């Protein structure tokens, strides 16, 4: 089950905080892969070959940035434009993650304020005489 499906299931089940926790956990990491696909590639799964791809993994929590640069990208001048494209996608990706985290933080604060204003459960109400 994908993260978005899990998120939707939690919302439907009324598990709002769990849904937001899932969204936040998914929002802290970004994986960007640029590869040279063969003509036989007919799906969007990562069928890339190690020597023919560039991968970047960014984790905002621990500050880790991991890069993989395939031999063809490092040595073949024909892939220079793809290298530039990948680096631009990484730059944009970092900005997107930061914006998404800010939006999630705002949503969580709004939800927290809303929950605080809601009446307490019937167990906590004073008994009528």
Describe the structure.
Helix 1 (3-12) runs antiparallel to helix 2 (16-27). The model has no long low-confidence stretch (mean pLDDT 80). It is elongated and about 65 Å long. It is built from four helices and three strands; from the N terminus they run ααβββαα. It has a domain at 28-36 and 46-102. A hairpin with a 4-residue loop joins strand 2 and strand 3 (64-69). The longest helix has 38 residues, at 80-117. Strands 1-2-3 form a three-stranded antiparallel β-sheet. It is of the alpha+beta class and 129 residues long.
Primary descriptors:
50% helix, 4 helices, alpha+beta, elongated, 3 strands, three-stranded antiparallel β-sheet
Please count the helical segments. Answer: 4
What is the beta-strand fraction? Answer: 15-25%
Q: Spans with pLDDT under 50 lasting ≥5 residues?
A: none
**How would the global form be characterised?**
elongated
The class by helix and strand makeup works out as alpha+beta
Intertermini distance: 52 Å
Sketch the topology as an H/E string, one letter per element: HHEEEHH
Q: Characterize the biggest β-sheet.
A: 3 strands, antiparallel
Q: Give me the Rg, rounded.
A: 22 Å
Strand line-up of the largest beta sheet: 1-2-3
Oligomer state equals single chain
Mean pLDDT: 80
Count all strands and give the number: 3
In helices, the fraction of residues equals 40-55%
Summarize the structure.
The chain is 50% helix and 16% strand. The protein is of the alpha+beta class and 129 residues long.
């Amino acid at each position: 089950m994908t993260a978005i499906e899990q998120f939707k299931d939690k919302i439907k089940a009324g598990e709002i905080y769990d849904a937001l926790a899932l969204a936040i956990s998914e929002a802290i990491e970004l994986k960007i892969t640029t590869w040279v696909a063969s003509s036989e590639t007919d799906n969007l799964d990562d069928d890339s070959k190690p020597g023919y791809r560039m991968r970047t993994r960014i984790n905002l929590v621990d500050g880790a940035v991991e890069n993989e640069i395939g031999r063809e990208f490092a040595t073949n001048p024909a892939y220079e434009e793809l290298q530039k494209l990948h680096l631009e996608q990484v730059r944009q990706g970092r900005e997107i993650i930061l914006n998404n985290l800010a939006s999630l933080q705002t949503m969580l604060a709004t939800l927290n304020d809303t929950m605080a204003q809601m009446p307490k459960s019937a167990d906590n109400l004073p008994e009528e005489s």
